[in-house]
Amino acid sequence: MSFDSISFCCILRNEEKYIHQLIKSLLEASKQINRVEFIFIDDFSNDKTLEILKEYRENDSRFQIYINSSKGKVNGTNLAFSKAKFDFVKFIDGDDLITENLANLPSNFNCLYHDYLEMYGANKEYKVVGKGFSQNARLFREEFRSIPKAMFFFKKSFLESYFPIPAELPFEDLWINFAAAEDMTLKYLPKALYIYRQHDNQYYGSLSNFNSDKQIRMATRFKKYYEYLENNKHPFSFNPKKKIKFFYKALLKEGLINHLFLIISPRLFIKSIIYSFPKLTRLIWKKI
């Protein structure tokens, strides 16, 4: 199978500022691919996002536009995936950009991930995702590690085993990472194919714009995923470990003892300190 068909899936809300840039990059990146569709799920925007999308659809039948079944990215992601009909799927965000012509991608994969450029304002920084994910997927799953979902390409037939995402979960990104980690032939491409925009309005973003509100959101995400996987049947070959519970309790400031319990898991311990005190961490890094 050659890489000649792809469904781009984008769930967006109030992205009138960036949507033209995203679409321009999509059209450029896919111009040599034979079969392409652009699936946009509008998550109840109250700006001109939907109006802009409809203008593109009038001139290009490859654009599919749907109103989300109910508010939230999980529902939107499930809807977009259900509408995708081509061999490969890539989830993208409404404020980001594709950077490369994708026609030359390999096609012998179930899941492929890649590097990206992180952009804050006009500045871009190359982010190496690295081979760690593909070489140690078990540890990534155990520690609920994730990379931005837009860094993956999936064969649709592979991903169908892990959809739909349970509607009660707060976000789609961790579930998509868990699915990727199930691929025993997971492939890594050391090339930046995506620009991941950072700004203060993001739900999470990176440490550069992390704050106390985002800290609570992160903890809540881990808590809900932990509880769901602990108490429900799921398609993954692992179950959550107690260290995840200590981690989200540490972020929720439910006692210093939770940080101490994490010492047996050095990466989660360090992460709990960094994300519990993001301002102090940024200050230290600037001094180093």
Can you describe what's shown?
The protein is α/β, with parallel strands linked by helices and 288 residues long. The protein folds into two domains: 5-198, Alpha-Beta Complex (Spore Coat Polysaccharide Biosynthesis Protein SpsA, Chain A), CATH 3.90.550; 210-287, no CATH class. The chain is 39% helix and 21% strand. The protein is built from twelve helices and nine strands. Strands 1, 2, 3, 4, 5, 6, 7, 8 and 9 form a nine-stranded mixed sheet that branches. Helix 8 (212-231) packs antiparallel against helix 9 (242-251) and helix 9 packs parallel to helix 11 (266-276). The radius of gyration is 19 Å and the shape is globular. The termini are far apart. The relative contact order is 0.12.
SSE arrangement:
Layout lengths: L4 E8 L6 H11 L5 E8 L6 H11 L3 E5 L5 H11 L4 E6 L3 E2 L12 E10 L2 E5 L4 H4 L1 H6 L9 E4 H4 L13 H9 L5 E12 L13 H20 L10 H10 L5 H5 L4 H11 L1 H10 L1
Mean pLDDT: 91
Reported by name, the CATH topology of the largest domain is Spore Coat Polysaccharide Biosynthesis Protein SpsA, Chain A
Domain count, please report it.
Answer: 2
**Which architecture of the largest domain does the CATH hierarchy give at level 2?**
Alpha-Beta Complex
| N-to-C CA distance | 49 Å
Alpha plus pi helix count: 12
